[in-house]
Amino acid sequence: MDLNLADKVVLVTGGSKGIGRAIALKFAAEGCKKLIICARTEKTLMETRNEINTKFGIDVLAVVTDLTKTKDIDHLAEIIQDRFGGIDILINNTGGPPPGEFKDFSLKDWQDAVSLNLFSVIYCCQKFLPRMKEKGWGRIINMTSVSVKQPSNNIILSNVVRSGVVGLTKSMSNELARHNILINAVAPGYTETDRVKQIVERNSRRDKISVEEVRRRIIEQIPIKRIGTPEEIANVVVFLASDQASYVTGVNIQVDGGFVKGIS
Question: Is residue 109's pLDDT more than 90?
Fold first, then answer.
């Protein structure tokens, strides 16, 4: 299947590790030659850039960016404009807010979560949509979580804030379709990332049981009987970003091994 990505300009935010890294690697594997990744931590960002360059011979543009700061996003957009003139595909991917219950968080914690996981998506869309509209083609994929379909215990910030991203995705899909810009969300289930490791360790301490027991209880809830890999999430994201997904917009697709029990 030809995904026709060789000449597309792709930006993957949070692209240095975990699911974001896997997405960037998948784009490179599918022949994307114009790839940009950004993240806050320079060390891991450059490690991922070098890995992609070594494996695929692609000169990846890597820009240190704090997505909670509009000036950093402005700087990122300026660099991309100078090099590529804009982007065709935007992958809005950010790490999740801290795990915990309602009682654990101050108003500032809520504001920080909204800034990281919702406002960053809004501002990136504002910065990069004009070029897509000019070209009459674009793809936006917003990374969410299965918690927006089946709220999970102990991650209330993510449950609430990422649901806002789903509302944004659906609303924007109705506005952008006439410009041939498709926008979707992807909702990973339990995936082998540092984020899930953090949640497992916190639950282990809270419930006074071993990490292995926490993992066993999670896996028991997943019909496929295993935790997913970042590469399995990336496969769906890259497909949605391609010409092959030309009639898919406004959806939030869970990639979770059957974890979510609801029909819709």
Answer: yes
Name the one residue in this structure whose structure tokens are 């994929």.
141
Given this model, what pLDDT does residue 263 score? 81
3-state secondary structure of 189: coil
Helices and strands (H and E) in the chain: how many: 9, 7
Domain segments of the chain as ranges: 9-190+230-255, 193-227
Please enumerate in sequence order all residues whose Cβ is within 8 A of that of 18, keeping only pairs 6 or more positions apart, or say none: 95, 191, 193, 194, 195, 230
191: which 2 tokens?
A: 């995936």
| Domain 9-190+230-255 architecture | 3-Layer(aba) Sandwich (3.40)
Q: What is the pLDDT of residues 174-201, one digit of tens each?
A: 999 999 999 999 999 999 998 888 889 9
Contacts (Cβ under 8 Å, ≥6 apart) of 214: 200, 203, 204, 207
pTM of the predicted protein model: 0.95
- 106 sits in the region (left: phi over 0; alpha: psi -120 to 50; else beta) called beta
Cβ contacts of 93 within 8 Å, gap of 6 or more: 12, 13, 14, 15, 19, 20, 23, 143
In 10 A of CB 221, how many CB atoms? 14
Do 143 and 254 contact (CB within 8 A), yes or no?
no
Question: Quick one: three-class SS letters along 152-176?
Answer: CCCEHHHHHHHHHHHHHHHHHHHHH
